[in-house]
Amino acid sequence: MAGRKPLPTTVKKIRGTLQKCRTNLNEPKPQGELVDPPDYMAEGAKSAWRYALQCAPPNLLKRLDMSVLEVWACAADLYRKAQTGINKTGLLVKAPNTGVPMQSPYLAIANKQAQIMTKAATEMGFTPASRSRVSLPMEAADQGMDPWADIAG
């Protein structure tokens, strides 16, 4: 789609910029809250998961967002580890066989994880920002849904 990606409806409500004429009345409303990270995740990834949940607006992230948040949290952990490696070795290291300066392998890891983190936030329509661009068929949408019902005015 052309143009700027829209903000999630929830974010527009929080900011007070929600306009009825620009509201997707058929926006999916996923159920269930995200709480604890999966047990198998590294401690750094679990920390990133908790950070995201603490900083996100209430009710923005749902169970449907679990896989995207999981990818983002794991990438964030690897990104931080790569940045720690860059801080120790610098941007350039000596090649093991020739001693010629070369780019630190940590830099490639950091760059790749940054790309993954960015894509995880925008792909598949699971993120809050991309969710506002999705429409459900009218028979699947809640017919009685009023986006202004919970706004005191």
- Classification by helices and strands: mainly alpha
Q: Beta-strand percentage?
A: under 5%
Biggest β-sheet, characterized?
Answer: 2 strands, antiparallel
Q: Radius of gyration, rounded? A: 20 Å
Number of DSSP helical runs: 5
Number of extended strands:
2
**Major sheet: order of its strands?**
1-2
Secondary structure blueprint with pairings:
Layout: H1 9-15, H2 43-55, H3 66-89, E1 92-94, E2 101-103, H4 105-120, H5 128-131
Helix pairs in contact: 2-3, 3-4
Protein model, in words:
By secondary structure, this protein is mainly α. Helix content is 42%, strand content 4%. Helix 2 (43-55) packs across helix 3 (66-89) and helix 3 runs antiparallel to helix 4. It has a domain at 42-128. Strands 1-2 form a two-stranded antiparallel ribbon. The mean pLDDT is 81. The chain has helices at residues 9-15, 43-55, 66-89, 105-120, 128-131, and strands at residues 92-94, 101-103.
